[in-house]
Amino acid sequence: MNLAAYIDHTNLATDASAEDIAQLCAEARAHRFASVCVNPIWVEKAVQELKGSGVATCSVIGFPTGAVMPQIKLHEAELALEAGATELDMVINVAQLKADNFEAIREDVEPLAILAHENGATLKVILEVALLTDEEIVRGCRWCEQFGADYVKTSTGMLKGADTGATVHAVQLMRNSVSDTIGVKASGGVRDRQSAEAMIEAGATRIGTSSSVTIVADRST
User: Fold this and answer.
1) Reported pTM
2) CATH class of 3-217
């Protein structure tokens, strides 16, 4: 299995420096990861570092809480695309998803999907599954597909405590809740090859991790 092709090599640390982003991109080039995933302020830097590599630049949007106005997410996405991002990982409005507020989630997701596709970019929507019931996960996945998302994603990786990231159960549930035309990204707590392979077996088509180099270097399985 070519694990590198599944991986979004990630550094979303609050104190990530220009040197850290340069290293992230050098590693992505060397291992041919699918993308690097960075905070919006580092998109332009990542695009420059990755020029000609075939590695995409992904920017998070509304990160990490998702609890900002849809107009703010849309403007943040516009700026990230202008800076050269070709993938967007937005955090859904978790409170409105839990409240079963169809219109609020449509207003949250659909404009970003339209914007992304108008610019030839991909939209992934982070559900933060540790905060959701199974029913809410299914609802979120189906709505995201309906509103134009290209992927549904498990987690930000920013919640504290055990079992706050991707789980096999959540990935399987998400995979079964959407059509084959939409991807599933497992992110949060995927730190070794065994975990990454388990997520892919469960239905993940992309893996978000900061442990990418460790994962692809592990030949134990």
Assistant:
1) 0.97
2) alpha beta
